[in-house]
Amino acid sequence: MENSRHSDESPIPLHKWRSYLPDWLKHFLPIGGGRAHDDHGKSMFGFTVFLLSESIVFVSFFITYIALRLTTPNWLPPGVKGPELSTAVIINSVVLIASSFVIQPAEGALKRRNLGRFRLLWLITSAMGIYFLVGEVKEWLGLDFGPSTGLVGSTFYLLTGFHGLHVFSGIVLQIIMLIRSFIPGNYNKGDFGVSATTLFWHFVDVIWVVLLSLVYLWRA
């Protein structure tokens, strides 16, 4: 009879330096080979790989944007101010970044099986994400340029729109996880969905910080 436990066949000896990592990072690594109780860790590792692939897409966009900015003499067409770091943009950014400090305690509350606190913090996180999206749409409607206004228009709407799509996806995932919390015993066997959604939301926030620096803080 084949043993259900086998050694970790990873080419990198993760188990040797796992003890040096912070606790929040340990459960993202596929330590333990094929053991059944390590399913959560392997799932999180797979989701982390997915986020790394998403990072490559964003990084390629950012590199292209930087290259275009550096090689285009007249980045802003005549009469176009371009995206500005207005008060509304600052508030939207603060709200989105602050939401990471709300969703993390929400995940912790679920792990302690405090469903009431989890639902409240999770709902606040979703509301903050919705606030950001509404603010972004309002900004688009008030700009003096569109997607067809030279490179500044096409790159701006591509970057902010692609990021906004990720924010929207994160909100949808949050709503699904919130609804699942009302199913009796749904999270008794694990909370991978909540952990993955939390990690995705942190990813979205980090991407926005980079995007904000490139698009709004880098002036022509």
Automatic annotation (TrEMBL):
UniProt-listed InterPro entries: Cyt_c/ubiquinol_Oxase_su3, Cyt_c_oxidase-like_su3, Cyt_c_oxidase_su3-like_sf, Cyt_c_oxidase_su3_a-hlx
Ranges where the Heme-copper oxidase subunit III family profile domain occurs: 45-220
Keyword Oxidoreductase: no
Gene Ontology terms: cellular component: plasma membrane
Stored Gene3D superfamilies: Cytochrome c oxidase, subunit III, four-helix bundle
Transmembrane segments: 45-68, 88-106, 118-135, 155-179, 199-218
Membrane topology: Multi-pass membrane protein
A GO BP entry: aerobic electron transport chain
Annotated keywords: Cell membrane, Membrane, Transmembrane, Transmembrane helix
Domain of life assignment: Bacteria
Single GO MF descriptor: cytochrome-c oxidase activity
UniProt-annotated location(s): Cell membrane
PANTHER family listed in its UniProt record: CYTOCHROME BO(3) UBIQUINOL OXIDASE SUBUNIT 3, CYTOCHROME C OXIDASE SUBUNIT III
Family that this chain belongs to: Belongs to the cytochrome c oxidase subunit 3 family.
Protein name: Heme-copper oxidase subunit III
